[in-house]
Automatic annotation (TrEMBL):
Name the record gives this protein: Elp3/MiaA/NifB-like radical SAM core domain-containing protein
GO MF terms held by the record: 4 iron, 4 sulfur cluster binding; catalytic activity
Parts forming coiled coils: none
InterPro entries: Coproporphyrinogen-III_oxidase, Elp3/MiaA/NifB-like_rSAM, rSAM, rSAM_sf
PANTHER family referenced in this protein's UniProt entry, alphabetically: COPROPORPHYRINIGEN III OXIDASE, RADICAL S-ADENOSYL METHIONINE DOMAIN-CONTAINING PROTEIN 1, MITOCHONDRIAL
Length: 328
């Protein structure tokens, strides 16, 4: 871990800042596998390196999986990968934790006095019923957290990653739910008393700043194995294997790396950039005007979010149809 974090900090130091007059970083997110296994002193070294290189806002949202020692370093956002509140479903997910560990983790969060914390839930799991899903949603709300991320199971991705319990099940067939049942799960989550944050839910004032950076198409740095940055309109990725990544960092230090791939296409931007239109309803006539008025669209692009929950489900179909046209 020490060698990897040292290499990570070398990459940060070797990265050319986008602009010396840029404001300090607003968010820092430690993700990938289980970052909380890294000792706090090593996390501190990463935060210090980021602060010295780019600056760190006094109101920055620093998020990571739970570890009590991390709170003293300025980590102010905690995420718990709960997934479900039923032992049988956790086993079906191939998770190492059980329901008892879920409650233990929430108690630790409370003891640490963390104000901003979230849970991840997965719907459309094998053998999951509306009653079971409703129980998970209810217990999540009772935990009095500030943010919930709800993910719909993607069996195809699970199969590609390998080693997942549900990879053996035929897509759309029992024990996996049908598309209609999956849509019902989403509607149930949308009725949860919370403010919607695209695909997530949170209390007012507790939006995930890091996710909003992606959704609003803002630039972001990324560091470490397999990470991908988006800076100055260009996306670029790091090697996924340690040997190649070490060589990559060494080349960066010698100014031998072209940190860039091809600029993002319209399709790339459309994939990432789905933003709420200030929460107001748009009449059909206004919508048609936006579509035909090219000058207005170029000057001030309009982004529309269909109303939850049925509108969101419809939007998935519309997006799929659109991409079939622009990128067959």
């Amino acid at each position: 871990m020490t060698k990897y974090v040292q290499l990570l900090c070398r990459e940060i130091n070797a990265t050319k800042a986008e602009n010396k007059t840029d404001p300090p970083l607003e968010t820092v997110f430690f993700g990938g596998s289980t970052p909380s296994l890294v000792p706090p002193k090593l996390v501190d070294s990463v935060l210090e390196t980021l602060s010295l290189k780019f600056g760190l806002s006094s109101e920055a949202q620093v998020s990571m999986e739970m570890d009590q020692g991390l709170m003293e370093l300025g980590v102010n956002g905690v995420s718990l990968g709960v997934q479900a509140f039923q032992e049988e479903l956790l086993k079906a997910c191939g998770r190492a934790h059980g329901v008892r560990e879920v409650y233990e983790a929430t108690e630790i969060v409370g003891e640490c006095g963390v104000e901003n914390w979230s849970m991840d839930l997965i719907s459309s799991l094998p053998h999951q019923t509306p009653e079971i899903w409703e129980e998970s949603l209810r217990l999540t709300v009772e935990a009095r957290l500030t943010h919930v991320s709800v993910y719909d199971l993607q069996p195809n991705k699970a199969r590609n990653s390998g080693g997942c319990k549900w990879s053996e099940y035929p897509l759309g067939e029992f024990p996996l739910p049908s598309e209609m049942r999956s849509a019902e799960f989403y509607k149930m989550a949308s009725r949860t008393p919370s403010d919607a944050e695209i695909s997530s839910y949170c209390k007012s004032g507790y939006h995930c700043k890091h996710n909003l950076t992606y959704w609003k198409n803002k630039p972001f740095y990324a560091f470490g194995l397999g990470s991908t940055s988006y800076v100055d309109g260009v996306r670029f990725s790091r090697p996924k294997r340690m040997k190649e990544y070490t060589g990559y960092v060494e080349k960066m230090e010698n100014d031998l790396v072209e940190c860039g791939e091809s600029p993002r296409t319209v399709q790339d931007m459309a994939t990432d950039h789905l933003v709420v239109n200030e929460g107001r309803a748009i009449a059909a006539d206004e919508f048609n005007t936006l579509l035909v008025n090219e000058d207005e669209t170029e000057r001030s692009p309009a982004y529309i979010r269909l109303s939850d929950p049925d509108g969101f489900l419809l939007s998935n179909e519309l997006i799929s149809l659109a991409f079939a046209v622009v990128a067959p």
